[in-house]
Amino acid sequence: MSEFSCKQTKPDDITLFPIVVNGKMGFIDSTGAIKIKPIFDYVTIFHKGLAVAVVDSNYGYINKTGEWVIKPRFSIIHHILYGTNSIPQKDYTYEELKTMDSIHSVFKKFLKTPHDTVFPYGITIEFFFVRGLAVFYQNGKGYGYINQDGNIVINPQFSSAGVFSGGLAPVSLLNGKLTYDEPVDTLFGFRSAGKRVITVPKYGYIDTTGKWVIKPTYDYANYFSGKEKKASVFLEYKTLQKVYIYSPKKDTNKFYNYDSKGLIINPQNQILFSVNADRISYFSSGYAICENDKKQEFLGGGYSYVDSTGKTIGYFIGCKRASYVIDKNNASSNGSKAYILLLVKHMIGDSAKWGFIKPDLTSPFGVAVNEIFKYDDAVSFSEGLAAVKINDQWGYIDIFGNLAINPNFTFAGFFNHGLAYVEQTSGNLKIYGYINKKGVLIWHRQIVKF
Questions:
Q1: Which of 69, 157, 261, 305 has its CA 20 to 30 A from that of 357?
Q2: Looking at the whole model, is its pTM more than 0.85?
Q3: Among 125, 104, 107, 124, which Cα is nearest to 115's?
Q4: pLDDT tens digits, residue range 373-410?
């Protein structure tokens, strides 16, 4: 090779972005050039060199040249309807679902009409390979794990399954029994119609060989997250309430824990601290979101943060993922200054608004705390910018609270390697594509909306 030769970029080093053209999906690079032709029914972003790709309701995995690494042989149907948290009473076929009038509207759109955006339905992290393993579902058996060769390494047997973190993954078996009072609505209020016993999942953790490391004794378990590898679990249900959820076949009820106490454990199953909450998220930037139904009902706010030491921060109407941001303009002698921003929803007068605060509940933008709660909606920071909703339109602010990109979008996504997916509407035209950090569209398409 000549000394003047340039080092060529390997395909795995290139960042690719999903696009939609005439209802089919492919990928572009950061310049807007098409690198993988739009021939798939659906694709995800790339994770560690692989992306999920769907053809005829089955999914497999492709590399950054568009070649199949694992051919499409896994059904996408279950993932769309149920995620990776439950096993249905019946495994529906593709043809059965197409004829159902009551099918979920998002899935109905995916099956019967070409989608026109990058995000026709949610995709979960369990699709991606973590520690070389990804979750899959097999009809009639449950969840298991495949490796990057597409081979089954942990047989399908679980009622739910999560990603590996710290060498462990949360999984469940339908082997628990729960007794509750069946409520009946009468003229004088609710009364018990008698005791009922149902089967519920019990959660534990397995290693990458499928061996139980923490036996399934918990009523719920999240994956280990954060630098300290903490996970939220629930030891028992204290009280239960029944709420309606969607079912493709008929109305059904789902049970949620109420007035429960969550536990934070480490991979050795040691209890680090407890949290009085009904639901606890994974840790992000050192903080987890706690939801408490009772506080939401009686105190006007049902959400708070808990840090890695167990300290609870505030009670709010809503909370979203904490952001770890870097201030390069006010760098210290040791490097850039970094800090945490918490995204919360708060009542300002008669309006509920979103804003960013510091963990000590002070303003990060040098203004009064009440002045930072001015957004109709917002998402966490990514690459120094956060999408905020102002007067029903989305734009972006920087880490100082300054408007960086004007609110001209009906949808605004996270920035990833310098680009963010956005959507605009102008009259009967819908425009979708990717913008850079200056707000300039580097790739877009437009369709007529009637």
A1: 261
A2: no
A3: 107
A4: 999 999 999 999 999 999 999 999 999 999 999 999 99
Cα–Cα distance, 139 to 70 (Å, whole number) = 19
DSSP 386-439: EEEEETTEEEEEETTS-EEEEEEESEEEEEETTEEEEEEEETTEEEEEEE-TTS
Mean pLDDT of the region 166-170: 93
User: Do the bridges between strand 403-409 and strand 411-416 make them parallel or antiparallel, or are there none, so unpaired?
Assistant: unpaired
What number of CA atoms fall less than 13 Å from residue 177's CA on the CB side?
4
How much of the chain is in helix, strand and coil states, percent to nearest 5?
10, 55, 40
Name the residue among 240, 166, 237, 160 with its Cα closest to residue 204: 160
Helix (H) or strand (E) holding 370: helix 369-372
132 residue type, one letter: G
Domain boundaries of the chain, sorted by first residue: 1-128, 317-450
Q: Are 170 and 203 in contact (CB under 8 A)?
A: yes
Place of tokens 């953790």: 205
CA dist 62 to 12, 43, 128, Å?
12, 9, 12
Partners of 142 in the β-ladder: 138
- DSSP character string of 126-183: GGS-BTTBEEEEETTTEEEEE-TTS-EEEEEEESEE---BTTBEEEEEEEEEEEEEEE
Give the 3-state secondary structure of residue 261: coil
CA distances from 9 to 6, 48, 62, 377 (A): 9, 16, 19, 39
Q: What is the pLDDT of residue 315?
A: 85
* Structure-block tokens of residue 217: 């004794």
In our burial notation (b when 16+ CB lie closer than 10 A, e otherwise), range 121-151 reads: eebeebbbbbbebbbbbbeeebbbbbbeebe
Q: Which residues contact 167 (CB under 8 A, 6 or more apart)?
A: 131, 207, 208, 267
CA distance 294 to 279: 12
Tell me the average pLDDT across 163-173. 92
Q: Among positive and negative, which fits the CA dihedral 260, 261, 264, 267?
A: negative
Name the least confident of 5-14, 67-76, 426-435: 5-14
- Collapsed DSSP state (helix, strand, coil) of residue 366: coil
Distance separating alpha carbons of residues 273 and 261, to the nearest angstrom: 10
Residue type present at position 310: G
Asked if residues 157 and 144 have their Cβ atoms less than 8 Å apart, the reply is yes
